[in-house]
Structure formats: structure tokens, C-alpha cells
Amino acid sequence: MLPETFHETKGFLLDLNGVFYVANRTLPGAQAAIAALRNSGLPYRYVTNNTTQSTQSMSASLQAMGLEIDPSEIVTAAYAAVLHLRQLGHPKIYPLVTEDAKQDFSEFTWSDTDADVIVVGDIGDAWSYRLMNRAFRLMMKGAQVMALHRGKYWQWEAGLQLDIGAFVAGLEYATDQSAVVVGKPNPAFYHRVLDELGLPATAVVMIGDDIEADIKGAQDVGMKAVIVKTGKYRPHLVAQADITPDGEITHIGAIADWLTTAQTT
Questions:
Q1: N or C: which end of the chain has fewer CB within 10 A?
Q2: Collapsing DSSP states into helix, strand and coil, what is residue 34?
Q3: 3-state DSSP assignment of residue 59
């Protein structure tokens, strides 16, 4: 199925968590895929909704696992948020993100009492009624919620974990407001990355384990999308989503095989 899916492919977008690693464990074929991408000469980016680390810290963590991925190759939801906040004229923000991830927002003024925008990312076990109520009060005073993403769940070594979409939905329900979502599957996110690659959507393949954010999000902007059967992938969840990937692979190492074959034919 890979040759048909990747036919005429000129570039790749690739999810990270659940595709190349889970927790601190690399997944089968991860190193081979990274090496093949670098040797291919094709443009690519790693696109992630991981919001717990700054781009620099994320790259360092990946390299510590043996995944040689440079910060310049990673496009995060936080990066998309920074671009959007700049377009808004550098509003005052309340960053509901981890201490490490706050590095990406250092150019903005922060406030937990009169912010214009609440930036919501994953803060793990730090979620509390106190923080939710603080965000609620800011929204009732007119602040806008900017969600780095609104994922339902993600894969950790212990299994599927609740993601920040539940907290975003709760704030929306309580305030009758809608959050601005800047990460995957926002079309603007994908278009920004395509602009970086300098390629039209029809020439790029997205590979990920999330049927909605990765597969449908990419397809909605005109890309082909291949689901990898690792990470959060579950056959029954894909079936009930009523979304059809353009291809599927058992693990990310399959693209190394394809790229090697493509270069020798």
C-alpha cells in the first residue's frame, strides 16, 4: 500500500509521540526512519501537539532517547500559538502551561488577574479547581481561551491518558464561549508548515497515530494521510471515527524501507 500512497510524494509531516516514541521508549524503526528522512533529500517536519516542553527541551529529550531530531525540524502547537499571539498584537496572557513550556511565551506579558488571552496546554497533575476557576473568572471578564490543541487522549506507558480537550470543553461549557485552537487539526497550523516546506498540500504525506488531529486534519487541507498502528492507535476507535486514512503502516520504520527503495529505483 505504501508505493501507491506515497506516489509523487515530495515531502513529509510526521507526528512524534506515539509514532517515534512512547514515554521514554523509542518505537520500532524510529532511528531508521529518521536516518532515511535525512538521507532522502526530501523536505519534512515533525509536527506535534506535545505542550509539556519547550522546543529546545523536546529536542534534547528526543536526542537522549537516541532520536536525532533538531529543534529546527520540530513545529509545535506552542509555535503556532506564538505566531497567532503576535498577530493579535502581543496581548497580555495567562499561560496555563508547564514551567518549561513557558519559555516559548517569554516575549509576552503574563498575568493571572487581567489577561486578554488564556493559553491552555497540558499541565498534567497540576490541574485543579483553583486553576480552572481562575481561568473561568478571566473568561467571564472577557478573556479569550487559546487552546494549544483539544486532544481527547494520548498514549503513555500506562495506557491511554485523558488529554486537555476535557478541560477546554469544560471552560467552553461554563462560559458559553468557544476556544481558539491553534495546533493540529487547525488548517492554519498545517498551512504554516506547508509554507515552511515550500510545497502544496497534494505533494505532502502526513503520518501519525491520531485519527482526528493527524489523519482528518491533514486530509482536510488536501494532504494524503497515513496512520501508524502504534501509540494511541486502536482499531475500534479508528472504525468508529468514520475517517478513512489513505494508507496504514505497522510502525514508522516502514517509511525507511520505502525511502530506500525509492532512491534505488
A1: C
A2: helix
A3: helix
